[in-house]
Amino acid sequence: MQAEYQTQSMQGQTKYGATANFVGTMRDFNEGDDVQSMTLEHYPAMTEKQLNIIVDEASKKWPLQNTLIIHRVGEIFPAESIVLVAVWSAHRGAAFDACRFIMEDLKHKAPFWKKEALTTGNDRWVEENTKGY
């Protein structure tokens, strides 16, 4: 299961010269503990609204031609992909910068709730995302 947001189709587009992508995967550790799985939850309308805001902010800072965000929800295991952010622009600098901006804002502002299942048998809600820089 996944939440997906894309501004438009890239079929037939010829004006972009750069595509920057980021794929985030699940680690098997967090906050000093071993993690065996994670469950991500969200409210689709709320999440889509925040992703729109993030992409709009990025589009004001950089000349973007398209964006794609795919974020999984449900149960996820270590080494599985969680999120894809892709950005198309005429130039690589804008694509790289916007991709990083979108990913960082997504991590800190998008309403996804994460519950970790630890190898000790305990569960815990993740209160704060790790720093990205």
UniProtKB/TrEMBL annotation:
Q: Write down the top EC class of this protein.
A: transferase
Query: Does Chloroplast count among this protein's keywords?
Result: no
What are its GO biological-process terms?
A: Mo-molybdopterin cofactor biosynthetic process
Q: Which reaction does it catalyse?
A: 2 [molybdopterin-synthase sulfur-carrier protein]-C-terminal-Gly-aminoethanethioate + cyclic pyranopterin phosphate + H2O = molybdopterin + 2 [molybdopterin-synthase sulfur-carrier protein]-C-terminal Gly-Gly + 2 H(+)
Looking up InterPro entries in the UniProt record yields: MoaE_sf, Mopterin_biosynth_MoaE
**What metabolic or biological pathway is this protein involved in?**
Cofactor biosynthesis; molybdopterin biosynthesis
Q: Which GO terms describe its molecular function?
A: molybdopterin synthase activity
User: Which controlled-vocabulary keywords does the entry list?
Assistant: Molybdenum cofactor biosynthesis
Family label: Belongs to the MoaE family.
User: Could you identify this protein by its name?
Assistant: Molybdopterin synthase catalytic subunit
Species whose genome carries this gene: Cocleimonas flava
Taxon lineage: Bacteria, Pseudomonadati, Pseudomonadota, Gammaproteobacteria, Thiotrichales
